[in-house]
Amino acid sequence: MISLVRNEMLKIVRKKRILIVAGIIAVLVALFTYSQYRDLERRLERFGDVDWRTTVQQQIIDMQNRLTSSGISDEWKSELQLTIQQQQYYLDNNVNPMEPGAPSFARMFAEHSINLLLPLMIMVVAADIVSAERTAGTVKLLLTRPVKRWKILMSKYLALILSVSIIVILFGVLSYLISGFVFGYLGWSAPVITGFSVAGNELNTNAVQMIPQWQYLLMEFSLVWFVALIVGTITFMLSVLIRNTPAGMGVMLAALISGAILSSMVASWESAKYLFMINLNLTGYLSGQAPPIEGMTLGFSLIVLAVWGLAALVVSFAVFIRQDIY
Amino acid sequence: MSEITLSVKGLRKSIGKKEIIRGIDFDLKKGEVFGFLGPNGAGKTTTIRMLVGLIKPSAGSIEIGGYNLRNNFTKAMAQMGCIVENPELYSYLTGWENLEHFARMLPEVDRSHMNYVVKLVRLEERIQDPVKTYSLGMRQRLGIAQALLGKPKVLILDEPTNGLDPMGIREMRNFIRYLAEEDGLTVLVSSHLLSEIQLMCDRVAIISKGSVIKVDYVENLLAMQEKVIWQVEPREAAKEILSSVTDVIDGPDGTIITPYLEIQSANWNQMLVEKGIHVNEMNRKSPALEDLFLELTGGESID
């Protein structure tokens, strides 16, 4: 089995997929670092060397102003209210939410990419892992070895898990290293507030606690890894089912993008919460964002994703083992 | 020469309600080259894909080196090497990496055997180059090297000369003969080209519309030479004249059949005419294998 996984890893590496993904991440991180740097600079220009509390207060006032203006939807309104409460909490407890530094940047970057950017990167590696063998016809050589089919597919899946892990690690390391160049590499132990939960329209702060940033990052990247794994597994299934790689990619892309769009507008369609793409924003539960549909919790999302992943795996194996190769 | 290395019994395959392979039986012996001949769409490729485990048969059994393919997949497949259609290898890897890749999927292949195989297909000089720079003939040879890695007893090649130039075709033919004669391999070759089968194979199975219609030695099939069919008047006198110069058989509908020999047949005709015999019709019949094929398949075209 180890030699089979080695074969699959060799193919992924030689197709330069991981390299491409690393390149894309590096470029994006550089881009975001720059934009955040400009943002900071502008703020300094505007407020001078002001205390961060003033900035936060200013933001709260901004949001309150927006709340009073007419023509914004109820959903948007309640989300704003929650954010205001959260900001207030930061202020009351003297925690700077904008603490600069590479760890904070990595945290924010991961939060923003968990539901679209990272899944896309995973897709680049996972989408053709089986279908490319079919398009190129090499599957005929692969399946005429004295190796059972489930072992071949298993080796591919293990290679995928490995690649997903590598990408998630690369993601963290690259965003830390590149942004640290500008923001400095400190801030591992800065306190981060977590444990917000939303009950109705109230921000529940009972379980709120402050933990050091490194611990928060660890939790966050475990969730990121889990999301990446599930997205990888579902893409893997599509790769088995759809012989044509671009078609498989298209299906996955449509699902992911529709997930991103739906998340902001499905509050009233309750059964949408069983769709995997609505549940991708796991880090939102840590940072205290309102979930797309009321009543969704971290545990719920984890279970939904796990069920989707398992089902995708079962389908992949069932189909691959029985399939006639023409 | 009598050890059976591949045995196929009652092989059938249906897709939906349509039966595309309708019961195929044959046995292959050690050291022979066996041809699988049939027009495009006769079921050659489907049959071969069932033999190599890519398609699951609806009924029937396949035994390779004594192991049943269905119940004992790994042991059966360890006895076999194959190329199905074109040898599609990983073009972004080098030839050697491709071989290593497939060697890792086999129980145990040592380096010296890999080197031996590379030498056998004469790819020593290019083996470290990426496969995408290979010519079709080189890919075909690398495909064979890959098939020979596991020291198989049976080699299955689907259309091995497809797309090769005349030089390549001849090389491939000699190579296949060499493997059968020197290494005692059983080689199953499929083709839609009569000439190829004729030159390369010991035995041939003619397949049409999903079933085998004849299995025989190529020599036997070729023994029936080209013929001339005579429609003459008076018949007995003509027969006497012709039998003095060649073999004569009675044909159907009062015809006479003799072998066809280029210039002589024309001379015989002249002889008959000079003796005052009316030659109403003189019909040359095509070579036997093709003829046989057309007869057997009911006039299905073969190119």
From TrEMBL, chain A:
<keyword id="KW-0812">Transmembrane</keyword>
<protein>
    <submittedName>
        <fullName>ABC transporter permease</fullName>
    </submittedName>
</protein>
<feature type="transmembrane region" description="Helical">
    <location>
        <begin position="18"/>
        <end position="37"/>
    </location>
</feature>
<feature type="transmembrane region" description="Helical">
    <location>
        <begin position="223"/>
        <end position="242"/>
    </location>
</feature>
<dbReference type="InterPro" id="IPR036259">
    <property type="entry name" value="MFS_trans_sf"/>
</dbReference>
<feature type="transmembrane region" description="Helical">
    <location>
        <begin position="298"/>
        <end position="321"/>
    </location>
</feature>
<dbReference type="GO" id="GO:0005886">
    <property type="term" value="C:plasma membrane"/>
</dbReference>
<keyword id="KW-1133">Transmembrane helix</keyword>
<dbReference type="GO" id="GO:0140359">
    <property type="term" value="F:ABC-type transporter activity"/>
</dbReference>
<feature type="transmembrane region" description="Helical">
    <location>
        <begin position="249"/>
        <end position="269"/>
    </location>
</feature>
<feature type="transmembrane region" description="Helical">
    <location>
        <begin position="157"/>
        <end position="178"/>
    </location>
</feature>
<dbReference type="Pfam" id="PF12679">
    <property type="entry name" value="ABC2_membrane_2"/>
</dbReference>
<keyword id="KW-0472">Membrane</keyword>
<feature type="transmembrane region" description="Helical">
    <location>
        <begin position="116"/>
        <end position="136"/>
    </location>
</feature>
UniProtKB/TrEMBL annotation, chain B:
<dbReference type="GO" id="GO:0016887">
    <property type="term" value="F:ATP hydrolysis activity"/>
</dbReference>
<dbReference type="InterPro" id="IPR027417">
    <property type="entry name" value="P-loop_NTPase"/>
</dbReference>
<dbReference type="InterPro" id="IPR003439">
    <property type="entry name" value="ABC_transporter-like_ATP-bd"/>
</dbReference>
<keyword id="KW-0813">Transport</keyword>
<dbReference type="InterPro" id="IPR003593">
    <property type="entry name" value="AAA+_ATPase"/>
</dbReference>
<comment type="similarity">
    <text>Belongs to the ABC transporter superfamily.</text>
</comment>
<protein>
    <submittedName>
        <fullName>ABC transporter ATP-binding protein</fullName>
    </submittedName>
</protein>
<dbReference type="Pfam" id="PF00005">
    <property type="entry name" value="ABC_tran"/>
</dbReference>
<feature type="domain" description="ABC transporter">
    <location>
        <begin position="6"/>
        <end position="234"/>
    </location>
</feature>
<dbReference type="InterPro" id="IPR017871">
    <property type="entry name" value="ABC_transporter-like_CS"/>
</dbReference>
<keyword id="KW-0547">Nucleotide-binding</keyword>
<keyword id="KW-0067">ATP-binding</keyword>
<dbReference type="GO" id="GO:0005524">
    <property type="term" value="F:ATP binding"/>
</dbReference>
